Amino acid sequence: MKKFILFPVYGLLLAGILLASLFGVNLHTWHRLTDESPIAELTFSRTGPREYEAAIAYGDFCTEEKYRLHGEQWRLDAQFLKWHPWANLLGFDAMYRIERLGGRYLAIKDEQSAPREVYDLHNPDVPDLTEILGRYGGRFSPVDTLYGSSVYARMDEQHVFRVYRGQSGLVLRKVPRVVIPGAGSGITIPINTACPDAENKNTINNK
Fold first, then answer.
1. How far, rounded to the nearest angstrom, does the alpha carbon of residue 85 sit from its chain's CA centroid?
2. CB atoms within 10 A of CB 155
3. In 3-state terms, what secondary structure has residue 120?
């Protein structure tokens, strides 16, 4: 009688452990395949009719670079290396190389005739690991594909545009720009508070 009572107790315990293990595996799989990491932030200030000053921070997020863009939209291009899902589960995160920033018009006729700028953001002196790893294919290679990934949106002074590295390409989100009390007309974009003088470096004065 004692063994008969203990058997279902042990059975329920083993079933609970198995279910918890399966839940943990599924959670890990979901996390790895949907993991994202911020790679760039952009803000815009209008300087004329369909003309903007774009400020982009990436890399260590401690230094802004500014560029003049024409058009209604902006576009950021990157070379993107995607791993096979099994490589993601082993801890491999997708790799990228930011390449270009440019302006974009809504009308095709403006794309063909209106002023526009495209800037090369890639440093040729830095080894291109995405290109190197992308050459190694084959049945047992963890590399799935190497391709270009882009994001674009309307240039908007009221928002911060945050670009993320997903496991399958670039992802774009925007959040309202934050006005810091006591900063006058300046608008501050907190990117990385670990950066020295981060508050001062990321203040744009609208005079």
1. 19
2. 25
3. strand
Question: What are the residues facing 80 on neighbouring strands?
Answer: 96, 147
Q: Which residue has the tokens 């279910």?
A: 19
- Segments of the chain assigned E as strands: 37-48, 51-58, 64-70, 73-83, 95-104, 118-120, 143-154, 159-165, 170-176, 187-188, 203-204
Q: What are phi and psi of 119, to 5 degrees?
A: -115, 135
The confidence score (pLDDT) of residue 141 equals 82
Cβ neighbours of residue 165 under 8 Å, at least 6 residues apart?
Answer: 36, 37, 38, 39, 93, 94, 96, 171
Q: Is the pLDDT of residue 124 over 80?
A: no
Q: What is the CA radius of gyration of the chain?
A: 24
**Burial category of 164 from C-beta neighbours within 10 Å (exposed 0-12, middle 13-18, buried 19 and up):** middle
Interatomic CA distance for residues 84 and 65, integer angstroms: 34
Q: Residue 90: is it exposed, middle or buried by C-beta count within 10 angstroms (0-12/13-18/19+)?
A: exposed
CA atoms within 13 A on the CB side of 173: 8
Note the residue count of the chain: 207
* pTM, entire model: 0.71
Q: Take residue 27 and report the two structure tokens written for it.
A: 């959670």
Query: Residue 182 above 60 pLDDT?
Result: no
First-to-last C-alpha distance (Å) of the chain: 87
